[in-house]
Amino acid sequence: MAISRDKKQDLVAKVKTRLEGAKATAYAKYDGLSVKELQELRRKAREVGVEILVVKNRLVIVAMKDLPAYKDTSTTDLNGQLLYATSAEDEVAPAQVLDKFAADHAALELKGGFSGDGIVMSQADITALAKLPSKNQLIAEVIAQLLSPLTDTVSGLGGNLHALLDGVEAKATS
């Protein structure tokens, strides 16, 4: 069933809004996924702040041509049945969501992506991005590294204090 011109314009506007606000976009081939599996993917994506769009590639290309950041972006890889994952908060989350889901569902195949600046990422690039820790994990690791000297100092001083108290207690009892 063909969709009306107004509906297409609404879809293009929706895609433009998502791409404008996205820090990253990942896309994947979804041939063979059931509706139930797509709903599961959408649910898992929402939990981490990622939105899933299933829209015709022609409409995505039209939306990209209207955006300054994506105007010169190559769209040659946008063919076949693709779904698009976007996130306005995390550059890594769209790729991670699709990669994790693809691990359990062979019908989903990560194909590529775009940075928020319109830079094309190949399948290898987007797969490597999916393997990176999330922004929150990286922040936690940096904080742990910054706190480790303090933690080491406190535990070292605590250990020496315990040894001193044990020595004093041993002298007092003998």
In short:
This protein has helices at 5-21, 35-47, 57-65, 93-104, 123-131, 135-173, and strands at residues 24-29, 51-53, 82-87, 109-115, 120-121.
Which helices and strands, and how do they pair?
Elements: H1 5-21, E1 24-29, H2 35-47, E2 51-53, H3 57-65, E3 82-87, H4 93-104, E4 109-115, E5 120-121, H5 123-131, H6 135-173
Antiparallel strand pairs: 1-3, 1-4, 2-3, 4-5
Helix pairs in contact: 1-3, 4-5
Structure write-up:
The protein has helices spanning 5-21, 35-47, 57-65, 93-104, 123-131, 135-173, and strands spanning 24-29, 51-53, 82-87, 109-115, 120-121. α1 crosses α3 (57-65). It has six helices and five strands. The protein is an alpha+beta fold and 174 residues long. A hairpin with a 4-residue loop joins β4 (109-115) and β5.
The residue ranges in which pLDDT falls below 50 over 5 or more consecutive positions are none
| Helix content class | 55-70%
Strand order of the largest sheet: 2-3-1-4-5
Rg calculated over all Cα atoms:
25 Å
Number of domains: 2
Q: Would you identify the CATH architecture of the largest domain? A: 2-Layer Sandwich
Mean pLDDT level: 86
Instruction: Tell me how many strands there are.
Output: 5
The backbone outline, from C-alpha atoms, is: elongated
Characterize the largest beta sheet: strand count, sense, and whether it forms a barrel.
5 strands, antiparallel
Taken as a percent bin, the fraction of beta residues is 5-15%
How many alpha or pi helices?
Answer: 6
For the record, the CATH class of the largest domain is Alpha Beta
The topology string of helices and strands comes to: HEHEHEHEEHH
Global structural class:
alpha+beta
State the separation between the terminal residues, measured CA to CA: 95 Å
